[in-house]
From TrEMBL:
PROSITE patterns according to UniProt: 4FE4S_FER_1, 4FE4S_FER_2
UniProt entry tagged with the keyword Transport: yes
Protein name: Ferredoxin-type protein NapF
Name of encoding gene: napF
4Fe-4S ferredoxin-type domain ranges (all copies): 25-55, 56-87, 130-159
Role according to the record: Could be involved in the maturation of NapA, the catalytic subunit of the periplasmic nitrate reductase, before its export into the periplasm.
Chain residues that bind [4Fe-4S] cluster 2: 67, 70, 73, 77
Length: 160
């Protein structure tokens, strides 16, 4: 068995920390060892944000839409991967890059207007524009801000 696991690790993504996995995954779970890559979660997602990623494993793609935390991926999975007793669906949070239009003195609030939890706060001072601050305690990592950004300046990442 250990030989098989060693071989399998050769094909893992080097940047798996940047991959957004499904919500409510068990905290101590080695996802790539337990997921069967059946695709049931992807088929069940009403927002169609669960895509087939590297190695055939499901990943979240916020460029299409947001996660509404409907639990359809959980309900359709036959494996014991999820823990619905967790306080939060995941530890993912929005992150804003320097390519935000506000850093170029272009007024844009698309992300904040799409954020239901109001986790994106703008601090405009006189004529100076700056990108918004992410209020981490308010951000649920739903990704609603990602697809509406006209310059792809927002990503949802694991908050560590």
């Amino acid at each position: 068995m250990s030989i098989n696991l060693a071989r399998r690790s050769l094909f893992r993504r080097k940047d798996q920390d940047n991959v957004v996995r499904l919500p409510w995954l068990k905290a101590d779970l080695d996802f790539t060892d337990k997921c069967t890559r059946c695709g049931d979660c992807s088929k069940a997602c009403p927002e169609q944000i669960i895509i087939v990623g590297d190695g055939g494993f499901p990943e979240i793609d916020f460029s299409v839409s947001e996660c509404n935390f409907c639990k359809e991926c959980v309900n359709h999975c036959k494996e014991d991967l999820f823990d619905l007793t967790q306080a939060q669906a995941w530890d993912n949070k929005a992150a804003i890059s320097i390519s935000c239009l506000n850093n170029e003195s272009v007024y844009c609030r698309s992300c904040a207007e799409s954020c239901e939890s109001e986790a994106l706060k703008f601090n405009f001072t006189s004529t100076t524009f700056v990108s918004p601050d992410v209020v981490l305690d308010d951000c649920n990592g739903c990704g609603a801000c990602v697809s509406v950004c006209p310059v792809n300046a927002i990503a949802v990442k694991l908050n560590r």
